[in-house]
Every structure is written in structure tokens, then in C-alpha cells.
Amino acid sequence: MKLNSLSSSIKLSLRIAAFLIATAALWSAYFWWRPPGPTLHLRVVTHMNEASNEVALTFDDGPHPLTTPLLLASLKRAGVKATFFVVSDGLTLYPQLARQIVDDGHRLANHSNHHINLTKIESSDYPIEIDRTFDAISNAGIETRLFRPPGGGLDRRAMNYLYQKDVTLAWWTNNVGDWAPLPAWKIANHLNNTLRAGDIVLMHDAGTSTPQALPLVIREARKKGLNFVPMPEEVLLP
Q1: Residue 154: other Cβ atoms inside 10 A
Q2: For residue range 101-135, what is the model confidence (pLDDT) as tens digits?
Q3: How many CA atoms lie within 13 A of 125 on its CB side?
């Protein structure tokens, strides 16, 4: 009986060890294959200098005629500058919103042309999805090399293209999750409890809850001594 019990324990331990090894291997492969790992020497900005007490608000998917003016109004009342990761389809349809974003002192950055996951398209489409948007942003009066892939979708083909084009991958440290319908109080509670110095906050130019939440978020962050700045093109170390 003791031998059988010992044998069963050994088998169980081996199974657990095999599971843990396989899990570690899969996670390692995942982070090697996809960002924010430093694959192909691609520049990646994921956070800012914590010692500066600065945080950056970033908004994906705009411009949009209903929500962008609300965001701009909230930011203007609070005296905060942010970064808008724009889709050039929107820039083409609403050039006046792009001008307003720039005139208000905010930054534009690249979120693709048609908001298509780069892992779902051919490499020949990269110039349309990436280069065309950089050109549109440049025509709006802003120079940037920041690119944030729609849905965070990247593979080695896309990262190799970004590296060859001297593009900086724009990641984040704090994902609000406001792409899903969230009430303003949930957005505010999330950031009031999690926002830290050096954070790059991922939000979206969609819906009315995010602009409604911004005044409370900004007020509480300032009480903690945090300052809001546009997302930097690179992390400046002390």
C-alpha cells in the first residue's frame, strides 16, 4: 500500500511539474512573440519616468463628431493636454476635429488607417494602414513616430515593418477598459484607485462616460501631486 501511495504521489508531482513547465513555456513564447517584449530591437514606450510625477492620458479611435468635442471640452476646462491616437479615416472625414485637437495643444499619434488588426492583413497593406496615417498626421501639423496597433494586434511581420520604418510602439501601463460600455463612476473609481506616477493611461474616444469621468479623475490625481502631460516620444530617464 505504501509503495502504491508513494507511486501515486510521484505521478501527481510529475504531472504538476509538467503542467507548470508547459505553462511557463507558453507564456514565455507569448511574450517573446508579442509586445511589449523588445522583439527586433523595436522601440517601445510603455511608461514614463516615475520620479517626475507625470502621467499621460491617451485616447484611441477618434476623431468622432459626437465624442471628440466632449473630450476636448473636459480637457480644456481642466487645463490638461493629452494624446489622441487617431484613425486616418476619421481625419479624412472630420479634418476640423483634427485641427481643433492640435489648436487646443494636444498631440496626435497613429492608430492605423482603417482600425484593422495588423495580424489579419497582408504585409503589402502595411503602407496603407501605417504610413498613410503618419502622412495624414503630418498634414495636420504634428510630427510623431508613435504607433499604437488596433486591439494591440502585432506579429513578427508587423513588428519588423515598424522597426524598418523607425516607428515607436506606443504601449500603456493602465488600461481603463472604457472600450466596453462603462458608467462614468466606474471609470473614475478605477483610475482614482490605480493611477500612479509614470502611468500611460489607455482610454477611448467613444461614448460619453469617459469625458464625464475626466473632471473627477483629474481633480483626484492632482491631489496626489500628479501632473498630466502628452505621451512622450520616448522615455526620458533621470
Answers
A1: 22
A2: 999 999 999 999 999 999 999 999 999 999 999 99
A3: 12
The residues, any chain, with a CB within 8 Å of residue 79's CB and separated by 6 or more, are none
Tens digits of residue pLDDT in 133-162: 999 999 999 999 999 999 999 888 999 999
pLDDT at 1 over 80: no
C-alpha cell at 214: 475626466
- Active-site positions read 60, 204
Please tell me the CATH code under which domain 37-228 is placed. 3.20.20.370
The domain spans of the chain are: 1-33, 37-228
Q: Within 10 Å of residue 41's Cβ, how many Cβ atoms?
A: 8
* Nearest one of 140, 203, 195, 148 to 177, comparing CA atoms: 203
Element of type H or E holding 16 = helix 2-33
